Amino acid sequence: MLYGMKILQRLFRVGACLLVPLVMLSNTVQAQSDASGPVVINGCGIWPHAQCQGKDLRHANLAYRNLAGADFTGAKLARADFTGANLAGAIFDDADLTAAKLVKATAPTASFKRAKLIGANLEFARIFRADFSGADLTAANLEAARSNFAWFDGARLSNANLQETKFFSVRLTNANLEGAFRRFTVFLDCSMEGCVGCPKEE
Amino acid sequence: MSAWLVCRHAAWIAVAVFASLAPQVQAVEIAVAPVVDQTGLPVLGEQWLPLNPYRGNSRAIEVGKSAFNQACAKCHGSDALQSVNNGAIAPDLRRLNRYCRRIADEALQKTCLTDNDRYFVKTVKQGKVVVGIVHMPAWDKVLSQELVWAIQAFIESQAK
């Protein structure tokens, strides 16, 4: 009986070992097929350096797309999906990104000035040197996001999820973090003048 | 405390005082207009065109090469060969239109190149300032429309 159980356990283990890489491979293939070929949505070309100022891309699936340097100033992007997208140097100033999905997006030096990111999901996003000055990130999810040298001047982060968010050399001047979830959040060498809800030195 | 230790402390204090007195200087690149012979280059005027009119024009490429090596090479590498010039600190511009070049559909490729050209012109005119750091100076009013398009035509001629 015990021997039979051991064989069953080994079979499960082998099955799991084979299944995991297969699932990962299928996910990769899915991501690549989603990102292949040029697409135009509502007059906006989905490619690097796209000029999509003021365009309507609500609910658009832009996951894993290369949108480096794209300009989405004033665009409507509510619930748009940018999962894993390359947004390096992209401009989202004054854009509406309400409930948008930017999970694992790579957005170094991107600009989100005065953008509306209420309830947006930036989990694990790489937002080094990104500019969120005056942005509204109320109840946004920035769990484990890496925001080295980013600017959040006057940004609203109230009720945001900041669990394990890395704020290294970040400017949080006049930002509002009231009610934000700050478990294991790292605040290192940050400017916090006038910040509400930022940690205080004891 | 020995005399040697006193001297050592005094030296460190002197270094700290000098460091605090030194002015905080930040190196800023200044846009200087290149001197280029533009003979034979069609005049475009003040109104900016949406698409590069010099694409593939051999004279424009020649003028662009001279202008590029005077104005841009310092950061982007001489002859736009960023990856060959190890000292180049700015991005490899030959990759700028790589995505558009791969599009087979002619109309779609033109739309992509129009976007790319707008991005190029905007970047050159406004420069690059990221969270307060000037990575590239603004070239607006320093470079004419003719020279900006000629430089881009040259960069594209160098594309891999």
Q: What oligomeric arrangement do these chains adopt?
A: heterodimer
What's the CATH topology name of one domain in chain B?
Answer: Cytochrome Bc1 Complex, Chain D, domain 2
Overall SS class of chain A: mainly alpha
Task: Based on Cα principal axes, name the global outline of chain A.
Answer: globular
Task: Walk me through this protein's architecture.
The complex is a heterodimer of chains A (202) and B (160). Chain A is mainly α and 202 residues long. Chain A folds into 2 domains: 1-30; 46-202, E3 ubiquitin-protein ligase SopA (Pectate Lyase C-like). In chain A, 17% of the residues lie in helices and 5% in strands. Chain A is built from 1 helix and 4 strands. Chain A has one helix spanning 2-35, and strands spanning 40-41, 44-45, 166-168, 186-188. A two-stranded antiparallel sheet of chain A has the order 1-2. A two-stranded parallel sheet of chain A has the order 3-4. In chain A, strand 1 (40-41) and strand 2 form a beta hairpin. The longest helix of chain A has 34 residues, at 2-35. Chain B is mainly alpha-helical and 160 residues long. Chain B has a domain at 53-160: Orthogonal Bundle (Cytochrome Bc1 Complex, Chain D, domain 2). In chain B, 47% of the residues lie in helices and 4% in strands. Chain B has 6 helices and 2 strands. Chain B has helices at residues 3-21, 58-71, 73-76, 98-101, 106-126, 145-157, and strands at 128-130, 133-136. In chain B, strand 1 (128-130) and strand 2 form a beta hairpin. In chain B, helix 2 crosses helix 6 (145-157). The mean pLDDT of chain B is 87. The interface between A and B is medium-sized, with 19 and 18 residues.
